[in-house]
Amino acid sequence: MNAAVVNRWFGRSWLAAGFVFLYLPIVALVLYSFNDSPIPNVWRGFTLKWYAALPNDSEMLGGLWLSLKIAFMTACGSVVLGTLAAFTLVKYKRFKGRTLFSGMVNAPLVMPEVVVGLSLLLMLVSVQRATQEAFGWGFPERGMMTIWLGHMLLGMAYATVVIQARLHDLNPQLEESAMDLGARPHQVFYLITLPMIAQSMLSAWLLTFTLSLDDVVLSAFLNGPGATTMPLVIFSRARLGLNPSVNAVATIIVVIVAIGVLVASYLIARAERQRTLEMAAANRA
Amino acid sequence: MLARLRTVLTGRVAVIGVPYLWLLLFFLLPFLIVARISVSDMENVSFKDLISFKDGVLLVSLKFSGYQFIASDSLYISAYLRSVQYAAATTLLCLFIGYPFAYFMARARHSAQPALLMLVMLPFWTSFLLRVYAWKGLLSEGGWVETAIVGLGLDRLLYAVELIEAPGRLMHTPFSLVLGMTYTYLPFMILPLYATLAKMDLRLLEAASDLGATAWVAFWKITVPLSKAGIIAGSMLVFIPCVGEFVIPELLGGPRTLMIGRVMWDEFFSNNDWPMASSVAVVMVLLIIVPLAIFNKYQAEAQEVRK
C-alpha cells in the first residue's frame, strides 16, 4: 500500500471515530428511552411506558410550557436587539463610546454564565429592595420576566454575531443606489436591507430559541417561586441519577430539533438556489 | 432636506441607543454592582451607600476581606487552580481530537464538505444539558462506554495516572469531567480550525514537496503555522467557558473535582454570603481576561486579513 492510500484511510477512520464520539450519547439517549427497566443501563425489552407517563408528569409539562414561552419571547427580543446592534456595528463606524459598545456586545458570549446570572440577580434584588422601600411593593418579582431578561442578554450577543456576519457581506452599493433613487432611510431598510438579512435573522431566531430552551444556569439564578423551566426540572432529576423520564423527553426534543433543522436547511438551500437562478436570469437580461 | 436630515439623525440615535442602553443597564451596571458588593460588608448589601458623608467628610468604606479570604484559604485557591487545570486539559484533548478531524474534513471531497460541516453542527442544536446527561448513562455501570473501557482494561491505565479513584469506577472522577467537557466543546474547536484549514492555499504544499520536503515536514512547517489563528481561536473558545463551567461538573464531576463555578454557587445559594460570592466572581473574570485579550487580538487580526 502506498502512503496516499494509508493517509486516506487514516483520515476516513479519524472522521468516522469523531462522528461516533459526537453522536454516541444521542443514540444511547434515544435507545434507552424505550427500555423496559427501572434500572437504567440494563436492557429488558422494548416499552413505550415512559412516554405514556409523560402526559401525567405535570412538573415536566409545566416546565416545558414555561420554557417554550420564554424561548419564543427570547428569540423575538434577541433578534430585534441583535439586528439593531449588528446594524450599529457595521454601519456606524464612528460614534462616541463605540469601543465600549462592541466590547459589551461580545462580552456575554465569553463571560461565565454563573457570573452573568449572579450579577443580574444582585441588581434585580437591589432594585426590588429599593422599590419596596419607596412604594411599599417590590418590583420586579422574580419569575418568567426575569428569566426572559437574562436569556435575552445572552441571546442578543449570539444574534448580533450571526446577523453582523451577514451584514458585513452585503454589497453597500445596493443600499446606495436605493438612496440615490430617492428612497428614505427607513424605506431602504425595509425594502433592501431587511430582505437581504432575513435569512440570517431566521437563523439567529432559531439559535436563540434553542439556547433559551436549553439554559440552566441563568434560569437557576433568575427563577422565582412557581417559575421552574424544563431544563431546571431535567437538571434536578439528572443530578440525582439516571431517570427514564429524562430520556423520553430527550428523545422528543431530539426528534423535533432534527426535523426543524432539516426543514430549515432545506428551505434555506431552496431559497439560495432560487436566488442564484434569478440572479442568472437578471444577468442574462 | 432639513426634515430628512432630522429623520436620519433620530433614526440613528434610536438604532444605536436602544441596544446601547440595554447593555449598559443589564450588563455593565449589574457587573459594577457585583464589583461593589464584593468590597462591602454583609450589612452594606442593603445599599446604604459605600460612599457616605459624615461631618462633611467623604468616607469611602471598602472592605477587601473577601479577597483576603480568597488569597488565604486553600479551598478557593485550589478550586481556581483545578478549574484552570481541567480547562487546559480539555483544551489540549479537544485540539488533539479536533485538529486531525478538521484537517481531514477540509481535505475531503468538496461536495462532501457541507454535509460534514452540518453533521458537526447538528449536535450543537440539540440540548447540551441532555447530551451531558447522556454521558452519565454511558459512563456509569453497565453503560456502553464503561463496558468497553473496563473490557479493554483501560480503567487500570486511567487509575494508574490517577484520573479515576478505583479501577472500574469511571463516574464522578476527573476522567468523566474532562471527557464530558471535551465532548461538549469539541465543535467549538473544530469549526474555527476547519475555517482556517479550508482557506489554505494547497499550492504551498506542492511547492514544498517540489523542493523535497516530505509530507510530514510540509505538514509541520506549512500547514500548522498557517492554521495558527484557528488553533488559538479554537483553544480560547474551549478554554474560556470551561473555566467557569457549572453544569458539566455538577452532572459528571465528583467530590474531587470541585470547580470555581460551584464554589461561587455555594457561597451564594448555601451560605448566602453575597460579598464573598461577588469576590469569587470578580476573581473569576480576572482569570479569563488574559486569554480573552489574546483571543480578541487574533480575532481582530483575522478580520484585517479578511478585508
CATH class (first level) name of chain A: Mainly Alpha
Summed up, the domain count of chain B is 2
CATH 2nd-level architecture of the largest domain in chain B:
Orthogonal Bundle
Instruction: Count the DSSP helices of chain A.
Output: 11
Assembly status: heterodimer
User: In percent, how helical is the residue content of chain A?
Assistant: over 70%
Name the CATH class of the largest domain in chain B: Mainly Alpha
Question: Looking at this structure, what is the CATH superfamily of chain A?
Answer: MetI-like
Please provide the count of β strands of chain A.
0
Distance N to C terminus of chain B? 35 Å
What value does the average pLDDT of chain A take?
87
- How big a fraction of the residues of chain B is strand? under 5%
Which residues of chain B sit in consecutive blocks of at least 5 with pLDDT less than 50?
44-50
Radius of gyration of chain B: 25 Å
Q: What fold name goes in the CATH topology slot of the largest domain in chain B?
A: MetI-like fold
Strand content of chain A: under 5%
User: Number of helical runs of chain B?
Assistant: 14
Provide the residue-averaged pLDDT of chain B.
83
Q: From N to C, what is the helix and strand string of chain A?
A: HHHHHHHHHHH
